[in-house]
Amino acid sequence: MKVSLFITCLIDLFYTEVGKATVELLxxxxxxxxxPEAQTCxxxxxxxxxxxxxxxxxxxxMMRAFAHADYVVTPSGSCAAMLKEYPHIFHGDPEWEAxxxxxxxxxxxxTQFLVDxxxxxxxxxxxxxxxTYHTSCHMTRLLGVKDAPLRLxxxxxxxxxVPLPNAHQCCGFGGTFSVKMGPISExxxxxxxxxxxxxxADYLIGADCGCLLNIGGRIARLGKPIRVMHIAEVLNAxx
Length: 239
Known about the structure:
It is a single chain. The chain contains 13 helices and 8 strands. With about 240 residues, the chain is α/β, with parallel strands linked by helices. α5 packs antiparallel against α6 and α11 (about 180-200) packs across α12.
């Protein structure tokens, strides 16, 4: 099965190990992975800030970059959800609407692809530790991926997975929200960290690097002994 990797801006710039783990995981499960170098930002930050016309140029470049792909897989629920919005954004556009629909139809978040397309729930991972899982807003509410990450984590040997209280609450990132509404965002992420400490988790696992950047950054500032990990790293682990 041929898979084209959409790596996202945050992983490319800040979380390169997540990208490597994603490729290794997919290849071990029999996928042939390519990386279209023409890919760029999906356009989400500009689009959500109201720069619709400008963001469309990035979206068009993404459609060109992945035109050849059979499947587009990304370790980001937020960015996958954005690609799923392309048909709405380009609705009525005689040149781009059809291509937007094609890209949206073949785009999957990583755990969604593993469970729904490859039909795999046990990837053979082994990771020892007590962890809790953060359900990011865009992945669960916009993309609709809720069960796949947990089903995969339940099969990780040695992992003690404990429920996160009020898991549905936003961590305060919300893309540009954390920049524009800093004080409110800080209170929200502090509450999230309190819940992580409440269950005495040594690890916080998530599937969106925006959330992990926000929560992990605050954890570091507060000096908390909690390690933040992307689910791809856990699923690729052999410890």
